[in-house]
Design a protein that fits this description.
Number of helices: 5
Order of helices and strands: HHHHH
Oligomer: single chain
Number of domains: 2
CATH architecture of the largest domain: Orthogonal Bundle
Number of strands: 0
Strand content: under 5%
Radius of gyration: 18 Å
CATH superfamily of the largest domain: putative ntp pyrophosphohydrolase like domain
Distance between the termini: 47 Å
CATH class of the largest domain: Mainly Alpha
Bound molecules: magnesium ion
């Protein structure tokens, strides 16, 4: 088994009898809420140590966030590696065709005119998701 986060977290979920799906799926609200709470707890722990450290604690809490995020993706049947690759593809379009990078005064990289938003819906559809019709979430109904 590889040491990628997705594989490690899958091993954990299978060993402990936790949910693991292979197709993107909306799950029961109580399970979805539980996963959100776990992730919020870990994110809060990162915030606690992000300024004062110590560095080993920060590293631990960052790993916990990633671990729980991968676990939440697995519970929902999302191949998170593929989603991250799409977000990365999108982020790299912030570099213009001539290599120019637009920055705000505080250094934040801005979205230039060639920026492409990530097509997360398309990635999930390739994974077998049938939800998220083009109008979902945009309708006034
Ligand atoms: Mg933690």
């Amino acid at each position: 088994m590889s040491s990628s986060p997705a594989d490690l977290v899958r091993e954990f979920h299978l060993a402990f009898g936790l949910d693991a799906r292979s197709t993107p799926t909306e799950v029961a609200p109580d399970l979805a809420a539980h996963r959100g709470e776990l992730l919020a707890e870990e994110a809060a722990e990162v915030a606690e140590v992000s300024v004062g450290g110590p560095l080993d604690r920060l590293a631990h809490e960052l790993a916990d966030v990633v671990y729980v995020a991968y676990g939440t993706a697995l519970v929902h049947g999302i191949d998170l590696d593929a989603v991250i690759a799409e977000v990365h593809r999108s982020n790299m379009t912030k570099i213009g065709p001539d290599g120019e990078i637009a920055r705000r005064a505080d250094g934040k990289v801005l979205k230039g005119e060639h920026y492409e938003t990530p097509d997360v819906r398309g990635v999930l559809r390739k994974q077998g998701w049938s939800g998220g019709t083009p109008d979902s979430g945009r309708s006034s109904e």
